[in-house]
UniProtKB/TrEMBL annotation:
Cofactor: Mg(2+)
Pfam family, one: Hydrolase_3
PROSITE patterns per UniProt: COF_1 (PS01228), COF_2 (PS01229)
Similarity comment text for this entry: Belongs to the HAD-like hydrolase superfamily. Cof family.
Organism placement in taxonomy: Bacteria, Pseudomonadati, Pseudomonadota, Gammaproteobacteria, Vibrionales
Record's protein name: Hydrolase
Single annotated GO MF: phosphatase activity
InterPro entries named among the record's database cross-references: Cof, HAD-like_sf, HAD-SF_hydro_IIB, HAD_sf
Keywords assigned: Hydrolase, Magnesium, Metal-binding
Length: 266
């Protein structure tokens, strides 16, 4: 049976208000006592996720920025892959031409944003953004670049997805974490490859892993794991990309925890 549990956060493990609910916390702690390893696998920043790990109260690996950073249970970086500086420079230069785009950078220990956005602060209790000058952006240490729009126009973001793929396709991995958040990492980065690295370090294989997710940035992980489960609320693109994968309930029902409890806790 599965030795490693990997889960996306927003739309998957967390409640709609972005919290770890009591039953989920209790279930993951019980699984830890049974010798199962848990891995956060998210597009979020590692500083943000470290706070959640403290709340959860168990040692856990952290796959963050969609796999651009991997931290072990002691908080040590065991994998790091940045967006190339020349690629980052060109991407930001293109994106700043569209005033509707909000440009975000995950750089080392910081989250940087080109304009104020009070709504975003609701998503993060202990971690928030700092402003950066879009005309003089920092280019070193960028785990990922991502884009949002106040109007949440998915079609407009798809246009940008196509543009970035056309211009930088072999050097970047472009994916949606939600329909309104377009993310860019180095081409060698994905949650699936990060999960494989963690499994090998712990003496296991991908066949020993069960994974949960709801976004296009979860597809590699869900397809590479021994068992990949799609949330019922996932975007239709995810379901179409993985037609043979089982679909479970919603995050507001703590579907991940209930599935794990039924499958792994006897």
């Amino acid at each position: 049976m599965y030795k490693i549990i990997a889960s996306d956060l927003d739309g998957t493990l967390l409640t709609p208000d972005h919290k770890i609910a009591p039953f989920t916390k209790a279930t993951l702690n019980q699984l830890h006592q049974l010798g199962k390893d848990f891995i956060f696998a998210t597009g979020r920043h590692h500083i943000d996720v470290a706070g959640m790990r403290e709340q959860l109260g168990i040692p856990a690996y952290m796959i963050t920025s969609n796999g651009a950073r991997v931290h072990n249970c002691q908080g040590e970086v065991i994998f790091k892959q940045d967006v190339a500086e020349d690629v980052a420079s060109d991407i930001i230069a293109l994106a700043k031409q569209d005033p509707a785009l909000k440009i975000h950078l995950y750089r080392n220990d910081d989250w940087l944003l080109n304009v104020e956005d009070e709504e975003l602060k609701k998503f993060h209790d202990t971690f928030s953004y700092k402003l950066f000058d879009v005309d003089n952006p920092p280019l070193q240490g960028l785990a990922k670049i991502f884009f949002t729009r106040d109007d949440r126009d998915h079609d407009k973001l798809v246009e940008w997805e196509n543009t970035f793929n056309d211009l930088f396709g072999e050097r970047v991995n472009v994916a949606f974490s939600t329909p309104w958040c377009l993310e860019i990492m180095d081409a060698k980065v994905s949650k699936g490859h990060a999960l494989e690295a963690v499994a090998k370090e712990k003496g296991h294989t991908l066949a020993d892993c069960i994974a949960f997710g709801d976004g296009m940035n979860d597809i590699e992980m869900l397809s590479m794991a021994g068992k990949g489960l799609i949330m019922g609320t996932a975007h239709e693109k995810v379901k179409r990309a993985l037609p043979e994968h089982d679909i479970i309930g919603a995050c507001d029902d703590e579907a991940v925890a209930h599935y794990l409890a039924e499958l792994l806790i006897k």
